[in-house]
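Pipeline run #58 for the internal structure catalog. This entry was flagged by the ingest filter as a single-chain record with no existing model, so it goes straight to prediction. Upstream metadata was stripped on purpose; only the residue string is passed forward. Reviewer on rotation: M.T. Logging verbosity set to normal.
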Amino acid sequence: MDTTSRAAGVVAAALDGYLAADFPWYGLDDGWTGNRWLMQVGAGAEGTVDYGSVGHGDEPTARQYEGPDSRRFAVVVTVARRPGRRSADGTGVLEATSASSAAWLAGSGLLSATWPGQMGRSLRQDWLDQQTAIAWDLADDLAGPNWSSLSLPVGGRPQDFRYRESEYGWVLAGEAPGVLLGAYGRGVSAYALGFADIADIARYAEPGPSGSTALGAS
């Protein structure tokens, strides 16, 4: 199998994961004219798709950590509304998803995408563990002083989000019809963004200025 065929197979497999979701996917609305690409979906304990991300702007590359990260991107995280339910092994109960779930996924996604270029790879895990714990605490307190309010359009209608900035970029979290929304980015102003449900998720798998066949990490 040649490289092109393998790449097409990877994209098709990823697309299948998005198509298996029982909730609508959200991305940036038509005001965004740059690249769009698929990232990853996440399955819950019961094997159902519970969340996933789509990217917009500059895609990650294997060389991005060798120097300052000059990419401009925004990632939208869609999280299914799930009630509290038992874990797959029956030993515990999973919490219901909430806007904090979306904030946590967005915050950890930003950290994974933007760890400092001057940091040696051997230190990356320690840094991620520390920063991830901080991101979790912040996500668990959306009403706290570390977050501010930001109104952005969702499907053309204003929607309130919780928003914060850091040296690594920005994170926001809120709600949309049928789902919970998170987003993160850098080099792109969150204040200029709008969200909309994705009528055709395959658009994100198409090569060209409005789509890309490359897959990023969520």
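catalog note: Confidence is low (pLDDT under 50) at residues 86-93, 213-218.
catalog note: The chain has three helices and eleven strands.
status: ready for reviewer M.T.
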